[in-house]
Write a structure and sequence with these properties.
With about 375 residues, the chain is of the alpha/beta class. The protein has two domains: about 15-315, 3-Layer(aba) Sandwich (Rossmann fold), CATH 3.40.50; about 320-365, no CATH class. The chain is built from 14 helices and ten strands. The chain has a seven-stranded mixed β-sheet. Strands 4-6-5 form a three-stranded mixed β-sheet. Helix 10 runs antiparallel to helix 11 (about 285-295), helix 11 packs antiparallel against helix 12 and helix 13 (about 315-335) runs antiparallel to helix 14 (about 340-350). The protein is globular and about 60 Å long. The protein starts with 12 loop residues before the first helix and ends in a 19-residue tail after the last helix.
């Protein structure tokens, strides 16, 4: 399997003929990237020009670099850069700067955890950057130009401050957002920061379902040499968590004329179309196909979209064999690194599908 495979919606005739694009009504999907220091997250890259980006970055220098990146965006996307920090309410605070600027947070680093696990990037520099905080709901309300349906997909990476930002975006989450991509922590890297369980609980109260982790990063004291002792376990450190507003689970979306409306006509159909595309970007193709089945779209359009979605994750067995042969070749070249090479190979696929529910007669250990 090739985990680097990226399928992009290239607006070819096959995609144009699907109802999912027609449902967008020429209004781009509004992707909000909160904590966008190094540019818009590539999780929505497959959507190309179907998406517009609103990027938030409170650091003045980083925001200037973002604007430069936006001007030369190879995808030609509309990008708005907001030099602003978000939170639950109006206020001002100090951004605690760290050795790696990307690890800076509105919470002070927790020295007990930072030193225990040698998280050097989160070591404080002693400097604080004064910033102004506003709630996302207020920012979007003041946005005059409706250039996109802002907030349909939101990504957050704010070093422990995600829950406060979500609480300041409650109206947007209730009415507009269908998918979230959030960095969450399991270790209190920063003092007083909420952890994954608190973020999940809050979003569940708003009707979002936790679907899984895009990737999970583990941590230990590194007292064990994993090259020679690879079968130990480590504790979760942080992970990008994925949440969807699942209409099947919530049973709250309908397509009747009495359905609640917002600023867009056919709101529920549009939201479901955006949700299908978000599931496509995040790799949840099975969920996208579930959603496709509940939409009142013509059979030929559904079949065309089904094929496009499945093609995005197709893998020829010969390519899998070739990749495994490459792994074995590397192991033979460096046998002392065999455990490390296998571990790195497994890391590439750790967050993909579980195959334990499929019986394979050629596998030496039968699934439970």
């Amino acid at each position: 399997m090739d985990s680097s495979k990226k399928i992009r919606i290239d607006l070819s005739e096959n995609w144009r003929q699907t109802e999912v694009l027609k449902s967008l009504s020429d209004l781009p999907i509004g992707f909000i990237d909160i904590g966008a220091r190094y540019g818009a997250h590539d999780i929505v890259t497959p959507l190309g020009q179907l998406v517009a980006v609103m990027a938030f970055e409170p650091d003045k220098e980083a925001a200037a670099e973002l604007r430069t990146l936006a001007e030369s965006d190879p995808l030609g996307r509309l990008t708005l850069v907001q030099e602003l920090a978000l939170g639950e309410a109006h206020g001002s605070a100090g951004l605690h700067m760290t050795a790696d600027p990307a690890a800076s947070s509105l919470f002070a680093p927790n020295p007990a955890v930072v030193e225990r696990y040698n998280i050097s990037r989160a070591r404080p520099t002693g400097k604080q950057l004064p910033i102004t905080i506003k709630p996302l709901d207020e920012v979007l309300k003041a946005q005059q130009d409706k250039q996109a349906a802002w907030g349909e997909i939101i990504k957050l990476d704010t070093q422990g401050y995600e829950l406060a930002i979500l609480k300041g975006a409650e109206q947007t989450l209730r009415t507009t957002t269908v998918a979230l991509f959030i960095e969450t922590e399991f270790l209190p890297i920063y003092n007083d920061q909420p952890l994954f369980s608190e973020v999940e609980s809050y979003l569940r109260s708003l009707g979002f379902s936790f679907f899984g982790f895009h990737d999970v990063h583990l941590r230990s004291k590194r007292l064990v040499d994993k090259r020679n002792y690879p079968l130990g376990r480590e504790r979760p450190y942080w992970a990008d968590a994925i949440f969807f507003k699942d209409p099947i689970e919530q049973s709250s979306w309908t397509f009747s004329n009495d359905a609640p409306q917002t600023n867009f006509s056919n709101t529920n159909e549009r939201q479901t179309a955006v949700l299908i595309l978000a599931a496509f970007c995040f790799g949840y193709i099975d969920f996208a196909l579930e959603l496709l089945a509940i939409l009142p779209w013509p059979p030929e359009s559904q079949q065309r979209l089904r094929k496009l979605l499945l093609d995005s994750i197709a893998q020829q067995p010969k390519n899998t064999i070739r990749e495994l042969e490459g792994l074995l070749e590397d192991m033979h070249k460096s046998p002392e690194d065999a455990n490390l090479l296998l571990g790195l190979f497994m890391d590439k696929y750790r967050s993909y599908a579980d195959f334990g529910d499929i019986t394979c007669p050629h596998f030496s250990k039968s699934p439970k």
